Amino acid sequence: MQRGYKIISRNYYGGKYGEIDIIAQKESLIVFVEVKSRSNDHFGGGIYSIGNSKKKHLRKAAEHFLSKNDNYNNKSFTFRFDLIIVQKGEVLQVEDILR
Predict the structure, then answer these.
(1) Distance between CA atoms of 98 and 50, rounded to whole angstroms?
(2) Fewest C-beta in 10 Å: which of 1, 58, 59, 85?
(3) SS3 (DSSP) at 11
């Protein structure tokens, strides 16, 4: 919200594909956000917690959201998937984790 985003949904349940932690909007951009919290960077930290399976589930959960919310499912919007990592009191946003 500090960066100008409006929160559309938190903990959106996308059916069998799981949950999207945050769905936000900034002008014509809709961002689907996965949030990972880590107490340390063992195993590479939060960035390595998003494997191919999780990416697939995020896409499908986003499709579920768009199928239920026609007002966002049109060509006037652009979509992006981001990762927010909370670790050691710091917040890091990694934009566009799915291409």
Answers:
(1) 10
(2) 1
(3) strand
Residue pair 95/84 in contact (Cβ under 8 Å)? The answer is: no
CA atoms within 13 A of residue 18's CA, in its CB half-sphere: 14
Average pLDDT on 53-66 reads 93
Could you tell me how far CA 61 lies from the centroid of its own chain?
Answer: 10
What is the residue type of 9? Answer: S
At 48, list the tokens: 């390595």
Q: Which helix (DSSP H) or strand (DSSP E) does residue 19 occupy?
A: strand 19-26
* pTM, two decimal places: 0.87
Structure tokens at 12: 């959106």
Per-residue pLDDT tens for 64-76? Answer: 999 999 999 889 9
Structural domains in the chain, CATH included, are 6-94 (3.40.1350.10)
CB 36 within 8 A of CB 51: no
Residue 42 has which token pair?
């063992």
Instruction: Give the DSSP H or E segment for 30.
Output: strand 29-38
